[in-house]
């Protein structure tokens, strides 16, 4: 046990003696599974609505974190984890930072210590920052990745100091949600975590103000395919299940509106989907399409909007029932097929379920409970389903990234 751990334990004992129990203001959920073969830790830090500079800083942070953190260098962090798809993974989403850690079944403490180090004492060295920025500056988005996220983020403009400021101001206890699954004794994970975080405090001083700079789209496609995204207004609270059901009806499966209209009837796109995009405290209902360059691209957003609104007007109970059937299948068994723009969900794994158990309550205030969510969606009337879909379409901002400009 290192000196940092001893200091935390001493502080914890002192506080308990004084009658002041240690409280972690974020979410921490332990799931003891006696027959599990390893420990799995899913953690996320949820962000307010991010502007382009903040999103660039977040992605640079995700690339820099694995360079080392308090007591661990890169190789030591890798060596302490086990292969769960990737031994140790940090991902940047538009609304949160995700950290995945796996350790051997008899080594829960190492995983929690690494997580604590990443959240509270990342090195963020010049070398790790430079490597992360070089990778992001020269990365080329695939056509579908471009469709889902057409933002042109200013990686070249972000300094290491600005990234470090983002880390210090946004990676804070109350924005953190953690789920730990493994063959440990009940209470063991929580006790170990409270020992580690007894001295983790929010930074002093004034928080950085939200950005007012608007995100600009990519000026041209990085490949031979043009893309178009319609992003609806933000939905929160009790309207989220309605929006999720609308995403199934609009853009999941071959009987969905976007497939029938955009691909089969109009032959506009070769790939098209509807999904919820996390943003700030809620979600936006979006539609993404990818297609070969066309002469009428400039007006395509308005054409697609009008044609989909007209189709929604003719939805019947058949469309509602089809959407509910898809929701029932995917929510209970295949989280990677739920229309949420969360890369990294790969199938019906405990890892994916743990991430959603960490993510969903931070976004909605409700536990991730597929059966309860499905029940809420089943209570949505056809009229309210149509109203949600039309509201999203009519209020959507269209973002076109043309391959014509790059040709």
Description:
This protein has 407 residues and is an alpha+beta fold. It folds into 2 domains: 3-197, Metalloenzyme, LuxS/M16 peptidase-like (Cytochrome Bc1 Complex, Chain A, domain 1), CATH 3.30.830.10; 226-401, Metalloenzyme, LuxS/M16 peptidase-like (Cytochrome Bc1 Complex, Chain A, domain 1, 2-Layer Sandwich), CATH 3.30.830.10. Helices cover 43% and strands 18% of the residues. The chain has 15 helices and 11 strands. The strands form 3 sheets. It has a 5-stranded mixed β-sheet with strand order 1-7-2-6-5, sandwiched between helices. The chain has a 4-stranded antiparallel β-sheet with strand order 9-10-8-11. A two-stranded antiparallel sheet has the order 3-4. β3 and β4 (72-73) form a beta hairpin. α10 packs across α11 and α12 packs antiparallel against α14. The protein is globular, with a radius of gyration of 22 Å. 43% of the residues are buried.
Integer-rounded radius of gyration: 22 Å
Computed structural class: alpha+beta
Unreliable stretches (pLDDT < 50, length at least 5) are 1-19
User: What is the CA–CA distance across the termini?
Assistant: 59 Å
- The SSE string, one letter per element, is HEEHEEHEEHHHHEHEHHEEHHHHHE
Q: What is the count of helical runs?
A: 15
Number of domains: 2
Looking at the overall shape, the CATH architecture of the largest domain is 2-Layer Sandwich
The CATH topology of the largest domain is what? Cytochrome Bc1 Complex, Chain A, domain 1
Beta fraction: 15-25%
Helix content estimate: 40-55%
How are the strands of the largest sheet arranged?
A: 1-7-2-6-5
- Assign the CATH class of the largest domain: Alpha Beta
Largest beta-sheet details: 5 strands, mixed
CATH superfamily of the largest domain: Metalloenzyme, LuxS/M16 peptidase-like
Can you tell me the overall shape? globular
Work out the number of β strands: 11
Mean pLDDT: 87
């Amino acid at each position: 046990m290192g000196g940092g751990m001893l200091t935390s334990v001493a502080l914890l004992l002192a506080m308990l003696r004084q009658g002041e129990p240690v409280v972690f203001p974020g979410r921490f959920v332990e799931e003891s599974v006696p027959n599990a073969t390893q420990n799995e830790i899913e953690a996320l830090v949820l962000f307010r609505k991010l502007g382009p500079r903040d999103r660039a800083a977040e992605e640079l942070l995700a690339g820099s974190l694995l360079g080392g953190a308090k007591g661990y260098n890169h190789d030591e962090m890798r060596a302490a984890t086990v292969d769960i798809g990737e031994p140790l993974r940090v991902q940047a989403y538009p609304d949160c930072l995700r950290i995945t850690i796996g350790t051997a079944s008899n080594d829960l403490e190492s995983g929690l210590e690494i997580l604590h180090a990443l959240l509270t004492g990342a090195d963020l060295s010049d070398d790790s920052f430079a490597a992360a920025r070089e990778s992001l500056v020269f990365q080329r988005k695939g056509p579908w990745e471009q469709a889902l996220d057409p933002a042109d983020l200013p990686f070249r403009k972000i300094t290491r100091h600005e990234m470090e400021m983002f880390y210090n101001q946004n990676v804070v206890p109350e924005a953190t949600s953690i789920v730990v699954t493994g063959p440990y004794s009940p209470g063991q994970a929580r006790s170990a975590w409270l020992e580690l975080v007894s001295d983790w405090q929010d930074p002093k001083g004034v928080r950085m103000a939200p950005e007012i700079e608007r995100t600009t789209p990519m000026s041209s496609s990085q490949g031979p395919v043009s893309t178009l995204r319609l992003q609806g207004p933000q939905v929160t609270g009790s309207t989220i299940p309605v929006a999720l059901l609308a995403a199934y009806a609009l853009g999941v499966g071959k009987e969905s509106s976007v497939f029938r209209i955009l691909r089969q009837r109009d032959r506009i796109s070769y790939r098209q989907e509807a999904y919820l995009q996390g943003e700030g405290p809620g979600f936006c209902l979006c539609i993404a399409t990818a297609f070969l360059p066309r002469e009428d691209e400039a007006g395509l957003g308005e054409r697609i909007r009008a044609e989909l609104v007209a189709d929604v007007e003719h939805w019947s109970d058949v469309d509602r029932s089809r959407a509910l059937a898809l929701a029932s299948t995917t929510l209970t068994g295949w989280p990677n097929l739920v229309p949420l723009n969360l890369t990294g969900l790969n199938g019906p794994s405990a890892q994916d379920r743990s991430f959603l158990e960490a993510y969903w309550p931070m976004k909605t205030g409700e536990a991730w409970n597929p059966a309860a969510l499905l029940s809420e969606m089943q209570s949505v009337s056809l009229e309210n389903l149509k109203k949600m879909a039309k509201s999203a379409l009519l209020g959507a901002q269209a973002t076109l990234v043309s391959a014509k400009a790059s040709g």
